[in-house]
Amino acid sequence: MPGLMNLHAVVIRNLGGRASVARAFGLPTETVKSWPKRGIPARYWHRIVEMAVDCMPNLTTHELERTKPRTTVTAEAA
Fold it and tell me: Which of 21, 58, 61, 75 has a C-alpha 20 to 30 A away from that of 8?
C-alpha cells in the first residue's frame, strides 16, 4: 500500500481515473471529482475493493477507512 500518498487518489487512478470510476457507479464525473482529496465515500468502499481486486489485491475497506483524507470544515461550509 502507498505510504504517505493519498490512498484514495491512488485507488481512483489505478481504477482508470475519475471518469472510469464514475461510469462504474453510474455517477456524473463531477461527483467523483472531489474524491481524491476528500476521500471515497464509505458507501462505495465495498464495491471499490471488488473493482480493485486485480490491480490492488491487498486493498480492504479497513485500509480505506484508515487512510481517508481528513478534511476541515470552513466557516462558510459550516
Answer: 75
